[in-house]
Fold each of these.
Amino acid sequence: MHDPFWNHNTHYFPVLTRLVGPGTRSALDVGCGEGLLTRRLRAAGAQRVVGIDLDPEQVERARAAADGEMTGLGYVTGDVLEPLPALSEPFDLVTCVATLHHLPLDAGLRRLRSLVAPGGALAVVGLTQPRTAWDWVVSGAAVPASAIARRRRGEWEHGSPIAEVTTSPAELRAAVREILPGATVRRRLYWRYTLVWRAPGARSD
């Protein structure tokens, strides 16, 4: 079955949209690109969704796609590591898809953590660089699965800039243990992992 928006990243969007609940008043998508995930988070029930991306062309595409489609969406061109007015208050849900490897790992995780409101969630879909024999076994298993999926579904070209992946699975897990204690990290198909972390504290409804 052909899906016009399927690729290795969007395959995991349901993991992220399932985190939207009745108390999700605000959500932030870091590295939003042309805004596909922001629109899906809004459709899932997030009351206000902000997307941020360094690429002004992608942000303009996101704004154009959202124009007249639904309310409650906003977009910012900028560096998530910088103090920006749009990021001055924390969010109930922060998502980050194929973007963490564009940032310094520790600084990126700490900044994402700081953007999550008490009781809120951080959800990352990311990539790592295989280092060990087992890493390469897991990586190799994705090759036939990816080929079959592409034939059945096609592959959406998102148009966002790409960056080299240098962090190994072990390095990622070590950083997560230190910075996001209690987070769940899972290896996934298509050379991806998911990371889900709940911020301590109660959400103020």
Amino acid sequence: MTTFAAKNFTGTDSRHSARQPDRKSSAQRKNAPGKRGLPGQVVLVLQGGGALGAYQAGVFQAMHEAGIEPDWIVGTSIGAINAALIAGNPPDGRMAQLRRFWGSIEQHIGNELSRYLSPAIDHALANLLTVAAGIRTFFIPNPLAMFGQHAALGTGKAAYYTTEPLRRTLSELVDFGCINEGRTRISLGAVNVRSGEMTYFDSREASISMDHVMASSAYPPAFPAIGIDGDFYWDGGIYSNTPIEAVLDDNPRRDSVIFAVDVWNPEGSMPESLWQVAGRQKEILYASRTKSHLARQKQIHHLRHVIRELTKDIPEKGRRSPRVKELASWGCHTTMHVVRFVASGLRDEDHLKDIDFTPAGIDARWKAGYADAKRMIDAAPWEAVVDPTEGVVIHDMPDAVGKPVAAGIDGFEGRTK
């Protein structure tokens, strides 16, 4: 690895891990009057997905209004940017900075022209403008790309766009001193370009800087790789777009309520055109096999709990032997509630939805995330009694999941509140 203390998560046992700093979880801190405590640390896990990240901001708004602030945020790509905006500000300033960021990256084609166009044409023109000119506060065309695909531009410049505008935007919105104070742990997923291995830059291990956020959101070949301590990194989404394994494999393990926010839906209807095939392929690719990962983790944690229960039946004298202690150390008593959100999508969206930075698209996804999270928080599934042998308990959203929603939700003012 590099000299930077990045962490490769390989699922090692807690016996071989360093001691975790003594930080209080949301359940241990005193909540404001009327606010609800949760059974363990609160973790927010954010997928990559470009413009779809507005859904994540809506989920966080509902959490914030309910007095649920994350102890740890894990993100990749746009999830890493949202994570930095949250962890890089005090709780009372987080929503304002999220609104400022998402407002700054809206793509407008001109209010006068929009009045005479149908929504479909308006979105198509906005997408075309994004591809051709970028977004001035996020990314703009890289003039060096004009030399062609075979020009040796260097690892840090070989991309169709430059993300220097994003660096400037985030420098005004994120306080890295706040991140590195350690109040909210943050882990950002990135892929080492040379080794192809997934790395999590973790504030528990070392300081987080702007470069780590930029690296985690450096999606190739659109965006350039970012150099950190002699290595170059790309967006972690090309390896694992659902970074929940960073939490479930963490050491030492802790009781947790994990708000896992997926903006790509692995389930969908049968495609009937090449355009629909492209969209369906994208959903499956970036959903990153979340269900199979969770099924594996449920099995592993169930076995750890079984080991713990079996150890109780061994006579006390036997439990003192080094051999039994070694085997018993594989047991676990933690319970992890995975509160899973899956963005349902908007009517008539297509495979270009992740570059839909139109005000209407951002507002609709923000509102959808807010509504879904409000419904889940009201249900509070983590309060139910669980089987003591279950280490991972999965809570899917109530009501139908995966059905398209309208582009507006009555009674919610979103980012303008």
